[in-house]
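User: Round two. Same drill as before: sequence, then structure, for each protein.

Assistant: Same drill it is. First protein:
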Amino acid sequence: MGNESVYGKKERVRPPRVHISYEVDLNGAMQMKELPFVVGVMADLSGNPAVPLPKPMDRKFTDIDRDNFDDILGSMKPRLAYKVENKLADDGSELSVELNFSKMSDFSPDAVVRQVKPLNDLIEVRTKLKALLSRTEGNDRLEELLEAIMENSEMRDKLKGVLGAEGPGAGQED
């Protein structure tokens, strides 16, 4: 096993995806030689960095694998900052969005929404409404009380004042 190739060692841990080998004539005997498959990528993958990146000549290659990917991503501090049309308000305004990523899970829709304040507020309201809905199941008294509040605008306004209802839908008549 002392003469095991690089690929043989890697196969015990994780099989490589690319094998490059060739035959070479060494003193009249044909021998198989393997070339390591190494890829170097030089790119600005950090989006709109808050701190300017060093010049490409000053950067170093980093080994990346599935075990250290989140650490490398976090050290790069990828960031997106832009303005988008505000679809939450029909007034033609724009919404400033700044997204920061430190691990792969930050790219999930839920994690992106949590970074945009107005969208996060809507998610929190939705979560509270779901919790309230789950409490009303099997609780006829609470369900009747909530229906009475929704039908009576005076009670609804009083409840909004007590709860400090601000945000989407505040002050709108249903």
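Second protein:
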Amino acid sequence: MRFYEATRFLFPRHYERRILAICFVAVHLPLVGCIVVLSWRSEWDGSLFGVLLAATLLGTMGAIFAVSELLMPIRRATVMLQTVQRGGRVGPVPVGGEDLVGQLLHGVAQAANETARRIEQLKDAAERDVLTGLRNRRGFLDTVAPILADDSYSMIAMLDLDHFKAVNDDHGHDRGDQFLTDFADYLSASLRRSDIAARWGGEEFIALFPGTSPRQAREILGRLQSEMRGNAAFTIGGRRVTFSCGLAQVRGYANLAEATRRADQALYAAKEGGRDLIMTA
């Protein structure tokens, strides 16, 4: 480190230029020595000097090129580390040998992979509901954004568990939390692979049915309601818990908030209409 610190005045912002400058001086030392000796002896030989000069220039150019190429992995590793520090993604890290540069590249690859893994874990944790494991509101919005990027029609559904407050009041919040988890698992397992479900808040859930007509969405949700009525897991203390649903059509992510508002109004109408119903806005 002492020599490194001592030579920092040479190109303080460009490490590779510092190395090239040192190589340049080192390559020219034989030429300078030859000139000094020939001048001291008064035995100047133009042809010998020409050969030495040509060899020195060729050696200099070759050394500059070779050192520049040898430093290329370090440059790439530096750029990759800076990208990782900013939280960005890096492409495949070049594989080096067993030398110092190879060890550096291996370390960068490990750091990049570990950072990317942790970022994905943090992002997933931030977009998941802790209780049910479904996406939360933020996760839902981030997930459906690319799906609704085109102008195709989709359906948005707002679902709310009927009389869920009575479950908490009569059986405790722990039992209520377990019921929410069971319903989330049931909802996730019953929807199609292309459908996106999330917990919107409390006992309210939301689902997106991409490229689905109102009739198809009603059929899917009607099947869920029918199967839920016959599922003993959703009967607590002799009380059968059902869900009400409001549906609205959505086209484009910019219209999602308005469609969600209309679906919520339809859900309110289903609640007012007697619950365990599906209403379309």
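The chain has a mean pLDDT of 83.

User: Perfect.
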